[in-house]
């Protein structure tokens, strides 16, 4: 990747970080409470390597096969200090691909998915960190459990899935202007507070709210987000055809 593209990426990254800091200060929060997950879905491998060169270390991928292919390819290039988050819908037949790599799995939305992750974790002697995805918009096309179903799902995870560690909640809001999306972010924060009241031993339990993307992340910070899933504002628009070619000899 040429120096001008790397410079553009660095400028975008610094601008996003500055906007996050400003939003946190406006909300009376410490900027250190908020972490950016750089959404690298469909972006080419060279762009991810440029992102690593400017200091980005936490990436979010939506597809298990793409996650594994990128992780393997970057490892071959000598990058070992990457934190991968799986931010897409979890398909149970892809658990074996994503579970070994994901530091945090954002999109757990059913007992069926939780059970598949639990089986993998138990078989491999691992502990998996997860978030429960809530459909705060009520749109049928959106993944996520209904708000009224959240506590039954949380109960199942906490009682029946000892190899899973529930760290909070995630949502993908409807594509509305930021101020309309604010209501959905507030709902997720309220649900997290109720989750703490029902199951938490301390106010620090279930620490994460994964909400906010390129178009609305400042509002998300103001409403309590701890994890922002930002792609376009960092990397630019996704290529129309794009998944990276896996490295030679490795299968996606």
N-to-C series of helices and strands: HEHEHEHEHEHEHEHEH
CATH second-level architecture: Alpha-Beta Barrel
Main sheet: strands, sense, barrel: 8 strands, parallel
Indicate the overall shape: globular
Distance between the termini: 24 Å
**CATH uppermost class:** Alpha Beta
β-strand amount: 15-25%
What spatial order of strands do you see in the largest sheet? 7-6-5-4-3-2-1-8
The CATH topology label is: TIM Barrel
Spans with pLDDT under 50 lasting ≥5 residues?
Answer: 242-252
Number of helices: 9
Determine the fraction of residues in helical runs and give it as a percent range.
Answer: 40-55%
Task: Round the mean pLDDT to the nearest integer and report it.
Answer: 93
Number of domains: 1
- Please identify which CATH superfamily we are dealing with: Alanine racemase
Q: Nearest-angstrom radius of gyration?
A: 18 Å
The beta-strand count equals: 8
Would you tell me the structural class of the helices and strands? alpha/beta
Brief overview, please?
With 252 residues, the chain is an alpha/beta fold. It has helices at 3-26, 45-53, 64-76, 95-98, 111-124, 150-160, 178-199, 217-222, 232-235, and strands at 35-39, 58-61, 83-86, 102-108, 128-133, 164-170, 208-210, 227-230.
General description of the model:
This protein has 252 residues and is α/β, with parallel strands linked by helices. It has a single domain (3-235), classed as TIM Barrel (Alpha-Beta Barrel). The chain contains 9 helices and 8 strands. The protein has an 8-stranded parallel β-sheet. The radius of gyration is 18 Å and the shape is globular. The chain starts with a helix and ends in a 17-residue tail after the last helix.
């Amino acid at each position: 990747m040429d120096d001008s593209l790397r410079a553009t990426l660095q400028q975008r990254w610094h601008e996003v970080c500055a906007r996050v800091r400003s939003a946190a200060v406006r909300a009376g929060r410490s900027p250190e409470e908020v972490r950016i997950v750089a959404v690298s879905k469909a972006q080419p491998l060279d762009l991810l390597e440029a992102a690593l060169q400017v200091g980005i270390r936490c990436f979010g991928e939506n597809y298990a096969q793409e996650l594994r292919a990128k992780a393997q390819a970057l490892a071959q290039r000598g990058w070992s200090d990457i934190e991968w988050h799986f931010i897409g819908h979890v398909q149970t037949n892809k658990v074996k691909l994503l579970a070994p790599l994901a530091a945090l799995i954002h999109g757990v939305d059913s007992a069926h998915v939780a059970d598949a992750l639990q089986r993998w974790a138990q078989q491999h002697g691992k502990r998996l960190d997860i978030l429960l995805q809530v459909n705060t918009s009520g749109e049928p096309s959106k993944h996520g459990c209904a708000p009224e179903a959240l506590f039954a799902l949380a109960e199942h995870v906490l009682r029946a899935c000892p190899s899973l560690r529930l760290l909070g909640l995630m949502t993908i809001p409807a594509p509305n202007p930021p101020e309309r999306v604010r209501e959905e972010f507030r709902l997720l924060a309220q649900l997290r507070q109720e989750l703490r009241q029902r199951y938490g031993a301390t106010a620090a339990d279930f620490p994460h709210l994964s909400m906010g993307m390129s178009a609305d992340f400042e509002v998300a910070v103001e409403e309590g987000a701890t994890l922002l899933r930002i792609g376009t504002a960092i990397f630019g628009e996704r290529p129309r055809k794009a998944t990276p070619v896996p490295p030679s000899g490795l299968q996606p």
